[in-house]
Write a structure and sequence with these properties.
With 307 residues, the protein is of the alpha+beta class. The chain has 13 helices and 14 strands.
Amino acid sequence: MNWRKPELKDLETLQECAVNNSFFANNYSAVNSLLYEKKFHSLIATDGNWIFEKYFDDGKQYFSFPHNRSGKYDDLKSSLELLEKEAASSGQKLIFQNTTLEEKDALVSIYPSAKITATPESGDYIYSREKLSTLAGKKLSRKRNHIHQFKSKHPDFAFELLSANNLPAVKSIEEKWLEENKSFALEDGSLSDLETEKEIIFYALDNFETFSKACGMTGGILFAQGEPVAFCIASNLSLSVTDVHFEKCLHDFGRDGGYAVINNEFVKTVQTEFINREEDLGIEGLRKAKLSYYPEQVLEKFLLEVN
């Protein structure tokens, strides 16, 4: 198999695959396939209409469930045989990461003795666009209060969709946000991850026009007191799902309700039926924050190791 790094020229093919498969899982986002190569050293390969991805972590090799550009899976077994040979040639086990429930069941039908591990930290939080945009009902009253609090403290706030004109302001927020979180990250050993994330965000912004054309990349920026204080970056995962890749707010403004405002203002501009706000990474505070918006579902994912 001819494995190589995913490149900008691959976006249209990856996006076609995502649309034809009606993907909900963020790890199959065409944008994420490129962005997270920088973190997981991911590689892609193709064989006819089949698209393969593999990742590396702590010396181990992991594969994605193979996907067909047409959305048809009549020949799934033959595509898996290619991965069996690939794993064998590297002397490692065949391990599938971030498989959805349906994909896990398809794999088990072929590998009935496979070891299956649920990975709740990788589950995607899927929301209704209508609910996130209106925040109607008693359950979401606290979110409405956060927005009212922010607007009362910052009556001059402004929201803009991302464009070439305000991308430098997004970079300035990211730089300030990283500085605010540096000391805590040094303590818990996550600084290198945050620095890699900054590199990924800057790469997305530097190639915003290309990502926007191929995958509908969009997002928003929030201003208060004339200064940029929060941003989000998103793209079209499929025809019914918008994937929010990043959402950040400077500390003082986040405390005032800035996260609720940037989320709500951006979602009002979205056209898809659903919003994927990605996983919680097993971080308790992040899990609580995502659950507080009452998702329609948390998309289950699994690790499957072929014996």
